[in-house]
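--- STAGE predict ---
source: upstream dedup step, 1 unique chain passed
mode: sequence only
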Amino acid sequence: MPAALSIDDYLPVYQFKERHEVFVDKTPAALLDVVMDPEVATDPWMRTFIKMREFPARLLDKFGISGALKNQAPFGIDNFLMLGRNADHEIVFGLLGKFWRPDYGIVSVPSPAEFHGFNQAGVAKLVLNFSAKVMDDGRTKLTTETRIFCNDRQSTIYLTLYWCLIRPISGLIRRRLLARICKFASPVDTVL
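--- STAGE serialize ---
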């Protein structure tokens, strides 16, 4: 597989999509450089939403009824596989799983090539990107897009139900993430 460096290379066909953008006076490099900064994802609201999502499974774990999330850290960007970075234009992440399950049903693969070729029935493929583009007015448009593809009817039904429940919160998390990236990115005058 040739080097895939965009969301379109990894997931051109999908059933689910969410996109958010902001305009900011920062350079694309400064914005994309902080995407992986652990401080960016340390937002109390995001942590609260993840705790709420995981609460039922963690409660069952405490009573020994299930081991779905036992000894697992809360879900976060560390669960994603970094698929690539196209200079100061885009960073792409991938995730495979049965996201509707209490433990997310995460399937790990070791490389972007294996992620690209993955096609196990019943496992959804999610690609998340952050892209930055300088606009005519000199500001940078920072965008995040999430796409999800299900390769069978049953997983499409499960994900449709799950998507209806989590999409409002997912959108809020992504908008807060964009705001935090902008906050943590270096000012324009120190990056030039």
